[in-house]
Amino acid sequence: MTSKGILHIIKQGARPSGRVLTVALAVLVLLAGLTLGAQTITLLHANDSHSHLDLWGPKAANLEGTLGGIARVATVIGETKAADPNVLVLHAGDVFHGDLFFNAYFGVPELQLLQQIGFDAMAVGNHEFDFGPAVLANSLSTAYGSSTLPLLSANLDMTGYPALETWIKPSIMKNVGGVEVGIFGMTVPNVPTSQPSPVVILGGDDPSVIMTIAGTQAAMLRAQGAQVVIMLSHLGYTYDQAVAQNVPGIDLIVGGHDHYVFDQPHAFTNPGGGQTYIVQAGKFYQYVGKMRFTYTGSGITVDDYQLISLDDTIPVALDVATVVDQLKAGIVQKYGDVYQTVLATAAADITTTYDSSKKRRDTAMGDLITDAMRNKTGTDIAVTPNGLISEGLCQGPIVGDDVFKPVSYGYDRATGLGFKIATFKITGANLRAGIEAGLANLPYTEDAFLQASGLTYSYDMRNAPLHRLKADSVHVHGNPVRNNKTYTVTANEGVVALLPLFGIQVTDIQMLPDLEYTVLKDYIQAKGTVKPRAKTRIKDVAAGK
After folding, report:
1. Cα angle at 313 between 310 and 318, to 5 degrees?
2. What is the distance between the alpha carbons of residues 40 and 86, in angstroms, rounded to a whole number?
């Protein structure tokens, strides 16, 4: 569903609040403002940290990364609280999955550190459910007992797993410098890799449900005395923008899920006539957003905004860095020397992105992963969706930790690593259908968009979903794909599990003992130097060059 589609539904009568609610909210805001003069609040925010507790990115001479790190986040929070009297610190979700810190400790240290270094609340991200609600509950119980950092999501139906209600609430009220701030959380629905059942993430079948829940939460918090209302959102920008434009009573949306980097807040006029601001701060603790806003009694005004880059100019908080080093020692004990043994060198950044001004749509990291799998098995093709590629490789030396991060999905009980690989057979007709299904939700989500080795195809984004693939463009090793011919495929076991959800039929599935991580590591190590491939495998014919 596109943002235009969401807006169309709302305009057709699904808007959760009409003129009466809009006026009522305006009155509540006015009455609340009479009790307090202007007050300035400093908001710090992060999102989508994905267990990246350590420094990462391009390496220094000692093979340590040069970006991010939760120890630098702690420094920013500590220095800000020392300088500013009224500070609010929020995390917009997704601490699970993405680094060996998660596979070794299941998110417990990060959850504890977030509370210890001063975060006030966190949204529940979709990746918090990657391994089901029982794993999430166990991590929260281990991290917090019953004394928790507030985890927020108003669109979770936890009836089927009520134990999570110990830690997850729809909203909280927090007094910041005398200002009553109401904060409610939201979680993105319908992400294929997320496994929330029997918890239900509301809004997947009808986007207007998201608007209704957001409107109800804003109205409830205003009625409880909230003078400022914040939506702590792990919905993604498409939903956030629709909420900002169509739901009254929300001052700020602190966003996540997309990994977008906004240098400045995005402002939208809401139905009450005021401004709703959206912020988002990338991923992996590379940035912390810092907004100073003033509550005046009739809403807020943004005084300034800064996206703080957590690079070498930010010192680490030594106590937190010590904890991270201890956790790394445990990882080395379990997985071997994944930090100091150089396996190969990247001649340039191996990225997960493409240049949208050009036709090419395969990515350097997608090419590398699928080439590695096909090299291992010798099948006709290998595929992996963008949604199962976590990140790329930075230019310079490559160590085991770098190799794991791009293929960090899944959990293998025997090794504590990620997915194994598998082979299967597929007809040309089903191969075309699988590619088409992967194109259906572009450009709003690329989770199912297939990267490939041994396979080339073109599509046209000007066409409607499920009619985008150029049928005569699908080739295997330069030969046109025939509908009734059978082809052999390599993919990770996560892809195999998802095939039925997309109605794609395959045969002769063979689960192999090889880990995707090991296959990629061996391939990279054998190459010695990894370079981005220049050959175009996937094209959007509607793009520029």
Report:
1. 80
2. 7
How many beta carbons lie within 10 A of that of residue 288, not counting itself? 24
Q: How confident is the model at residue 14 (pLDDT cuts 50, 70, 90)?
A: very low
Query: Which secondary structure element, helix H or strand E, spans residue 381, and what is its range?
Result: strand 381-385
Question: Is-contact 249 6, C-beta < 8 A?
Answer: no
Name the E strands within 270-339: 275-279, 287-295, 300-309
Q: Which residue has the tokens 């809401």?
A: 270
Query: In the predicted model, is pLDDT for residue 288 greater than 50?
Result: yes
Q: H-helix or E-strand containing 398?
A: strand 396-399
Ramachandran region, residue 118 (left: φ > 0; alpha: ψ -120 to 50; beta: rest): left
Beta-carbon contacts of 530 under 8 Å, excluding residues fewer than 6 positions away, are 344, 345, 346, 347, 350, 368, 393, 398, 524
Largest CA distance in the chain: 74
Q: Contact at 8 Å (CB) between 38 and 295?
A: yes
Over residues 37-60, the mean pLDDT reads 96
What is the reported pLDDT for 18?
A: 43
Report the SS3 class of residue 410.
coil
Predicted local confidence at residue 190, as pLDDT? 83
Task: Tell whether the model's pLDDT for residue 442 goes beyond 90.
Answer: no
Is a pLDDT exceeding 60 seen at residue 420? yes
Dist. CA 527–CA 9, nearest whole Å:
52
Domains with residue ranges and CATH for the chain: 3-318 (3.60.21.10), 341-540 (3.90.780.10)
